[in-house]
Amino acid sequence: MPERVSMDKIVSLCKRRGFVFQSSEIYGGLASCWDYGPLGAELKRNVKDAWWKATVQERDDVVGIDASIMMHPQVWKASGHIDSFSDPLVECKSCHLRWRADEIAEGACPKCGGELTEPRMFNLMFKTHMGPVEEEASTIYLRPETAQAMFVNFENVINTSRKKLPLGIAQIGKSFRNEITPGNFTFKTREFEQMELEYFVKPGTDEELFDYWLKERFEWYVKNGIRRENLRLRQHKKEELAHYAKDCYDVEYLFPMGWSELEGIANRGNYDLTQHSKYSGKDLSYYDAENNERYIPYVIEPSAGVDRSVLAFLIDAYREETVEGETRMLLSLHPSLAPIKVAILPLSRNEKLAPLAREIYTNLRSSLMTQYDDSQSIGRRYRRQDEIGTPFCVTIDFESLEDNQVTIRDRDSLAQLRVPVEELEQTLQAKLRGEPFDVSPLWATRQT
Ligand code: GAP
Predict the structure, then answer these.
(1) Which of 20, 72, 170, 377 is surrounded by the fewest CB atoms within 10 Å?
(2) Average pLDDT of every residue of the chain
(3) pTM of the shown model
(4) What are phi and psi of 246, to 5 degrees?
């Protein structure tokens, strides 16, 4: 079992290599807000693409939407967020730091030991005003979850998609919560992204489909590279359940600070559509033509955090190894998530090597995220690519000019394979799809 990496190492790698920067850093930073740099933006996009592919693209029973962040204020009244989306807040009477009452063990300030105020409920929604007048009537909220857009669009989607239940509506987008205690890098922030699915089902089939989604979502993390032993499912206790939930499990990951929530999977019953029917005056029941019956669907909701997933994928991929007496740091990311798929590395900056190396780079980059690097020694360039998780490096040497063959180096095994330039892209694509590195059918065929 490899030693667990500390959060400090991950934060430092993220800054050093351009995955994540502190927001507004030149002004001293904005607390708990983060910017994804060039590699982080690629990684995050790949995580979202992998989720969308598994949840929408590869399924007949799920469609996607992309809704606005600002919604009618009544949405949040109906959903229960205005009345119940709150955490108990206490303030230290000496140092004035604020804490979540349910997160501190003793009745004194964890920072200075000072006396605390009585808890008061603090609503986590960010308020703002719509239009040029700042008055009570113009108050709106930044959405604290993407889910509500799927409920209020249920009728629109049913009427336009010509689909029957069970039917899922999926969305990826930003959410905002004025968390009392953000922290642990990108784990808990006030602005974050969610990947949510609201899966509408016939009442009575909900428990079976809830179990189905628990398995699906757990396996999605494993399929994309997280080690099974670092994941677990934890059922919520009765007193933990959100006001809408009939049952709920968290997919937890073994983060450096301990087991913590990566994704919540809830059986929301018919709470949401019932509430929105009541508040909007619209009948949101579903007519089941096959059985000639009408009912308010139940909802199974797998709700994942993009930022938490990115963090978990980074942590799980982090390795330190000793190779020939030297420490090698690598990110063993799944190829589908790796920000850069292939690095083109001419052996040296010699002008004879550049034309072929450049040509290969230009040909590959329309289909694969490719980087060209001819600075410093080849060893240093390999290490740089290992550190950012690039699965394959392609080296062009002087022999390549004679035999038109190049060397592919595998990040994880360090194995090398020599292939003709005309077979390079096909070979790389096959390896990126998971074909073992030591067996190349293309290459084997050529040898016989
Ligand atoms: N619609 C249900 C819902 O929003 P949640 O458990 O509150 O459920 C779902 O949030 C996921 O969103 C969490 O498992 C987590 O991955 C992510 N998330 C929630 N709050 C977050 C925060 N403050 N910072 C980063 N991610 C957060």
Answers:
(1) 377
(2) 94
(3) 0.94
(4) -90, -35
